[in-house]
Amino acid sequence: MRMRLRAPEEGETAPSTQSPRTPTSRAPQLDMRSPELIEQRLENLKRRPTWRAYLDEYVKAHPDDDDDKGDDDDDDDDEEEEHVASDAANCVNGSSGTHMSPQSDRSSPVDNGFVKTTLWSVVVVAMTPLWVVVVPFLLNRGADFWPLHCPTFFSLYRRCVAHLVFVALALVVVYYSICKEVPEANPGRASIVLREELLEMVEAGRSCRAAVARGNQRLMRELCSPIAVDVVFLQAAITLVFKTHRRWARLLVLMLALAQFAKAPERITAALQPVPEITAIDPSFALVDEEILIAIDGKNLQPGGTVAWVAYWGCAASAPVDSCELQYPGVFDVGVVSVKFTAMDHFVPCYRNPPTPLKVEDFREVDAQ
Predict the structure, then answer these.
(1) What's the rounded Cα separation, in Å, for the pair 339 and 325?
(2) Which of 23, 39, 106, 203 is the most exposed place for a label (fewest CB within 10 A)?
(3) Is 92 helix (H, G, I), strand (E, B) or coil?
(4) pLDDT tens-digit profile of 315-341?
(5) 339 three-state secondary structure
(6) Lowest mean pLDDT among 8-12, 146-150, 216-220, 270-274
(7) Which residues is 310 bridged to in the sheet?
(8) How far apart are CA 237 and CA 232, in angstroms?
(9) First to last CA, the chain
(10) Could you say which DSSP state residue 315 is in?
(11) Cα-based distances in Å from 33 to 29, 39, 41, 48
(12) pLDDT at 305 over 80
């Protein structure tokens, strides 16, 4: 150990050399039990600040440092959250990617297409006898083994059977939209009826086009409304045939079948067509075997139409008017019709539009009061 000694400067007094054992060099002894020391310690304890007061004082003394630190902490927290999220995603994709990918594929809606679903449905249903033997050995297969994104064989089989059932129902609705009847069990007979009805539909379309060319509003309503309603229902049924692999299309097929069963097209057509209506006749009575001119008032009555009569007590009182015999037909012209009653009864007038090459007319019965 090296020590450097220097001479004392002027004005500097030399330190007094006293023996360490002299009483004057000793520090005064501290008495811990003295009342003064105890009182001083109590005062110090009273004045000692709490952690909350210390932190408040520190924040007030360093406002800038606190804001910068808070921003840095927020940035660090955001970066840490992004880092944790990315690590979690990587862990999921890396460690359990082989298990999660099939579930995510099944959870998302997958459109297999009508052709693919139909082909698989035909194959699966046609192999039903084979499945009875083979399925027990395939129950442990995973979801990736079965087609059409089905998790098990039983879900695949149910889906295929349901698809074929709805395809058949949609085809029946198409046939009914054209022929107005359910197809027969004999395919040859059903094809003949279908061909005849298609030809009639084509002729109805030509009649509608001729009415449009003539510009006759009445004929347009009478001839075009039936074919328009039938075409709309037919087009809807044909479209739904190729959408039966979807659930919403199956629901619409059921609704369309119920509408056809409830005769909705016929009701819509009847609502669109102008309906002839007889509102009053004058006179309201006539003598037997007397030829008389009866004035007929009504709506949508055309000159050249035919007016016939149905006996009320003789037939209409006990049977539907449509099944009763039409008597005393006469031509409606200039608002009157000539008739001669040969029996005593209460007669109901029936009206039919004048014949036209574009449409076959029928009588309409009206009970004129």
Answers:
(1) 16
(2) 23
(3) helix
(4) 888 888 888 888 888 888 888 888 888
(5) strand
(6) 8-12
(7) 348
(8) 9
(9) 145
(10) I
(11) 12, 10, 11, 21
(12) yes
Rounded to whole angstroms, how far apart are CA atoms 277 and 296? 10
Helices then strands, each counted (H, E), the chain: 11, 7
More confident residue, 7 or 213: 213
Mean residue pLDDT of the chain comes to 74
Tokens of 59: 């924040």
Task: Enter the pTM of the model.
Answer: 0.51
CA–CA gap between residue 248 and residue 256 (Å, rounded):
12
Q: Name the DSSP class of 49.
A: P
Per-residue tokens: 283: 């006179």
* CA–CA distance, 254 with 265 (Å, rounded to integer): 16
Residue ranges per domain, the chain? 48-84, 106-274, 277-365
Question: How many CA atoms lie within 13 Å of 148's alpha carbon, on the beta-carbon side?
Answer: 24
**Partners of 281 in the β-ladder:** 296
Calpha distance 268→220 (Å, rounded) = 15
Answer for the pair 294, 341: CB distance below 8 angstroms, yes or no. no
136/153 Cα distance (integer angstroms)? 10
Q: Which amino acid is at 230?
A: D
Question: Which residue is listed with tokens 């940035």?
Answer: 75
Alpha-carbon distance 317 to 6, whole Å?
Answer: 153
DSSP three-state, residue 295: strand
DSSP 8-state code for residue 145: G
Residue 44 token pair: 């110090």
Average pLDDT over residues 343-354: 86
- Measured distance CA(77)–CA(67) in Å, rounded: 15
CA distances from 233 to 47, 92, 180, 318, 324 (A): 94, 51, 12, 38, 34
The mean per-residue pLDDT over the stretch 82-109 comes to 43
pLDDT of residue 255: 92
Residue length of the chain: 369
pLDDT digits (tens, 9 = 90+) for 148-193: 777 777 777 888 888 888 898 999 989 888 888 888 878 888 888 8
Residue with tokens 């009415």: 211
Question: CA 270, CA 264: separation in Å to the nearest integer?
Answer: 10
Q: Report the C-alpha gap between 202 and 245 in whole angstroms.
A: 31
d(CA 150, CA 193): 40
